[in-house]
Write a structure and sequence with these properties.
By secondary structure, the protein is α+β, with helices and mostly antiparallel strands. Among the domains are: 1-52 and 362-442, no CATH class; 446-562, Immunoglobulin-like (Sandwich); 573-684; 694-853, no CATH class. It is 19% helix and 36% strand. The protein contains 10 helices and 48 strands. The strands form 12 sheets. A 5-stranded mixed beta sheet has the order 1-25-24-23-22, with no helix packed on it. Strands 2-3-32-31-30 form a 5-stranded antiparallel beta sheet, with no helix packed on it. It has a 5-stranded mixed beta sheet with strand order 34-43-41-37-38, with no helix packed on it. The longest helix has 29 residues, at 688-716. The N and C termini lie far apart (91 Å). Keywords: Membrane, Transmembrane, Transmembrane helix. The chain crosses the membrane at residues 694-713, 725-746, 752-774, 794-814.
């Protein structure tokens, strides 16, 4: 046990305020004084309000919230002069950007009752929470009887607003309990996953209720799960909430045994534990298990404060209990480190020689760079005393500072800067700023805002080659893969594009289980001289020894750029994608335009490529090479000559990679692109000549042969109907094309496949029967019979060919080239039959085939 004597370690600072009042509204000034102290340099930041409400309504910094990147959002209130117990009915927020600029936001039309701007049991119920950079959660009370603020009709509500004050959604949470200290909103460690609401059930003193909510990107509430549990002690129990690294929640509470008057003279009660520290873990979007005991003591201690947070150094969670012994004013600080299983890894008790008087209250804040800040606010003198404790025995840094009447202070999570609100002066407010509080983790801080990360490839702020083939992250201690992802993003101004994400099964662990490595796809670094960052989810890995989830790396911290990449010009091209069976069904349930608009927008985001360079004819074709119904669709990619724009050839290559590995790329996350078949990829449409050159050569040779035969016939005997050989060629070519269509394309539209087959087979059958019938009947003609006996083989051949078209029989009496085999003596009745047969063929074959194939 180490005794920290606050009086001997405090360092009192003389604060120098430099406030420059400017004639321009919204102008912010900062003044820095070079005061070297044990906890850093101090300066003053001040802001002059745009609107002056007069000397009786000065701007008071009433509350502060901060984003993970250090952007602060503070609330300013002004007294409503006629009634000093109320503020002006307006939610005034001030956004303090990282560059020191201030954006003033005053929201007057949120439909929030006036009671929220007035004191209810020494508190004001209106609160706000930062969900996203453009969305804020506001909670407030409502009542059907505003004159009776403690009646049973008092309810709690929440709204989500954007920065312009538009109410995106409003939700009734439940009955309010203004007299209970157990009424809390706990944001998830991943703000986009929502929050936990915890409160005492109305009209009870020991039933705690909780509800989980998610706030959707559009700003609407989604209720996830809810539950409740009983406290064994009554109203004097202490309850706090915390978010957990695995993106769940925990409710930590202290139950105290209620003493009776008979105990007043007893200084030690050791029969039963008087204080029990318990935890209720609540998984994200899950119901809770039963609470389990963490720690219990039998000595006579009165707990006056409980603070819990994740352990930024090491693993697990940490709670600080501030207590005092009965019949003693000595404060005792009990630090409990524990795991998710409830196992305690360390227990440390710190004694303070300073009395804890009733005019002060103590808060403990865990620091993201290690250590803890103890803050005591003296309400009588508007001052803050603090001790910075590094978690090691014998080391502490003390300081003191004046503050405003609310004692507002904030610690920026990205750089350990301490801001303490000062008393308002005229129409301005200000903060005393202490830069760079000492980081107790020492050299473990490598710039990742995660003290468990030792190094990475690529390094922070490095420049890498576009063909970098792997990414890795090395931890100080051995780890095991968990459920989180590692994701690579490309940043273009305010927009971010997901390039690749690694699920655990795409990663490997090496270097004594300290280094996690993933292979990078060729399509990941597609932008020349692009800006990229890698985000590591919380619970990406777990400590291998304790199996505890570990913190990740936030966006815009692990930053790097790529070198310039030379991309050669290539002409416009068309590529083919294939939908999965589910995607084909999805397509059939949408309009073609809707589907292709979504598809092209998502491909434009995924590559990325300018949307104007993508187009499609909107048509589909069934792929007959697979058993299930799957559509083929075409995408046209327009060429570009703009420098550094991605070329057509590169787009085709990258899109093929992204589709084939869609479970690692944004293709797999798109509403429409998720239905692209990874087995097919993105196939460039072949050059028509390359695809059909052999078929075309065959046709040219066939036509050439027919022309040679025609010329030969003309030379040998020009008196014959030599053109018949060309007609025969057309008949044969038509039959071949019909067969190829049925074989290759008839299944493109399944409902037309059977008609295609029928209108090919039936006409051939009818023509064949008709041809044999005509020839057989004509054998009764003596002259024809004599010719038939001499040229039976030729007659049989052309009778078979007449199955394609009955007009093929005409060549037998065409006198082609003067050959006797083509001098069949047809009767007039036979010629008429051929004519009628050809007319029939037009109606049963040609017209239906044109309709189907068109």
């Amino acid at each position: 046990m180490q005794i920290i004597r606050e009086n001997s370690t405090k360092i009192l600072f003389s604060l120098i305020f430099s406030i420059i009042l400017c004639s321009y509204p919204l102008f912010t000034t900062t003044a820095e004084t070079t005061i070297e102290t044990t906890i850093g340099k101090m300066k003053t930041f001040s802001h002059v309000e745009e609107i002056d409400y007069g000397p009786t309504s000065l701007p008071l910094v009433y509350d502060s919230q901060v984003f993970d990147d250090g952007t602060m959002v503070i609330r300013i209130v002004r007294r409503d002069s006629p009634n000093n117990d109320c503020f002006i009915n307006m939610l005034s927020l001030r956004i303090i950007n990282l560059d020191g600029t201030v954006i003033e936001k005053d929201y007057k039309n949120l439909d929030i009752p006036k009671i929220n701007y007035c004191s209810l049991i020494k508190s004001y119920p209106l609160k706000y929470y930062l969900i996203r950079k453009k969305q804020i959660l506001v909670t407030y009370y409502n009542s059907t009887d505003p004159n009776d603020i403690l009646n049973a009709t008092l309810t709690e509500w929440g709204i989500v607003i954007d920065l312009d004050g538009n109410v995106l959604d409003r939700r009734y949470f439940g009955p309010a309990a203004p007299t209970s200290a157990i009424s809390k909103i706990q944001l998830n460690i991943n703000r986009e996953k929502g929050f936990l609401r915890c409160n005492m059930r109305a009209n009870t003193t020991n039933i705690v209720e909780w509800q989980q909510y998610r706030i959707e990107p559009e700003g609407n509430f989604t209720n996830l799960t809810s539950g409740n549990f009983n406290l064994s002690g009554p109203v004097n129990s202490t309850v706090v909430t915390m978010s957990t690294i695995d993106e769940g929640y925990a409710i930590v509470f202290v139950d105290r045994t209620q003493k009776t008057d008979d105990d007043s003279n007893i200084k030690n009660i050791t029969i039963i534990p008087q204080n029990q520290l318990s935890i209720l873990p609540i998984g994200y979007s899950q119901t809770s298990v039963s609470p389990f005991l963490l720690y219990q003591i039998c000595t006579n201690l009165e707990f006056i404060s409980l603070t819990c947070d994740i352990a930024y150094v090491g693993v697990g969670k940490v709670c600080f209990l501030v207590a005092k012994q009965d019949y003693s004013e000595t404060a005792i600080y009990i630090k409990v480190n524990f795991l998710s299983s409830g196992a305690i890894t360390s227990l440390l008790t710190l004694n303070s020689s300073d009395p804890v008087n009733t005019t002060s209250f103590w808060r403990v804040r865990s620091l993201t760079f290690g250590g803890y800040l103890f803050i005591s606010f003296d309400v009588n003198f508007n001052s803050i005393d603090g001790v910075l404790y590094d978690g090691k025995v014998g080391t502490a840094y003390g300081f003191g500072s004046s503050t405003n009447s609310k004692g507002i202070f904030e610690i920026l999570p990205h750089n350990n800067t301490l801001l303490v609100a000062q008393k308002e002066i005229d129409n301005s407010w200000q903060f005393d700023i202490t830069d760079d509080l000492p980081k107790s983790a020492g050299d473990r801080d490598k710039g990742y805002s995660n003290l468990n990360v030792e190094s990475t490839i690529p390094k922070i702020q490095s420049t890498v080659k576009p063909n970098l083939d792997e990414v890795s992250i090395t931890f100080y201690d051995p780890v095991a893969l968990s459920t989180g992802k590692l994701s690579i993003y490309q940043k273009d101004g305010d927009k971010t594009y997901l390039r690749q994400s690694f699920q655990p099964y795409f990663l490997s662990i090496e270097n004594d289980n300290r280094t996690v490595t993933g292979r990078i796809l060729n399509s990941t670094f597609s932008v020349s001289k692009g800006n990229y960052f890698i985000k590591v989810d919380n619970d990406f890995v777990r400590d291998r020894v304790f199996n505890e989830p570990m913190l990740g790396i936030r966006e815009n911290i692990w930053n790097f750029t790529t070198e310039e990449r030379i991309d050669h010009f290539s002409r416009s091209a068309t590529g083919i994608l294939r939908l999965t069976p589910g995607g084909t069904l999805y397509f059939d349930n949408l309009t073609s335009d809707h589907f292709f608009d979504n598809l092209l927008n998502e491909i434009s985001y995924a590559v990325p490529i300018n949307r104007s360079r993508l187009s499609s004819n909107g048509r589909t074709q069934v792929d007959n090479s697979v058993n299930e119904k799957q559509y083929l669709i075409s995408i046209d990619i327009k060429e570009t000559r703009i420098e550094n724009d991605i070329s057509v050839a590169t787009v085709i290559k990258y899109l093929d990679f992204m589709v084939r590995y869609k479970d690692q790329t944004p293709i797999g996350e798109g509403q429409t692109t998720q239905y692209l078949d990874e087995k097919y990829g993105f196939v460039r449409s072949p050059n028509l000549w390359e695809k059909y050159k052999f078929g075309l050569l065959g046709i040219f040779l066939f036509v050439g042969l027919l022309i040679v035969l025609f010329l030969f016939a003309q030379i040998r005997d020009s008196r014959g109907n030599n053109i018949a050989i060309l007609q025969l060629g057309i008949i044969i070519l038509d039959l071949v094309m019909d067969i190829l269509f049925v074989n290759s394309n008839a299944r493109d539209i399944p409902i037309l496949y059977l008609p295609s087959v029928l209108f090919l087979v039936i006409p051939v059958g009818i023509n064949t029967i008709l041809a044999f019938s005509i020839v057989t009947n004509e054998n009764t003609n003596t002259k024809f019979n004599q010719w038939f006996k001499t040229n039976a083989k030729v007659a049989f051949l052309f009778t078979i060919l007449a199955g394609a078209d009955i007009k093929a029989l005409n060549i037998l009496h065409s006198k082609f080239a003067g050959f006797s085999c083509f001098r069949a003596p047809f009767s007039e009745s036979l010629k008429v039959k051929i004519l009628w047969g050809s007319c029939l063929s037009i109606f049963i074959a040609d017209i239906p085939q044109v309709a189907i194939q068109g």
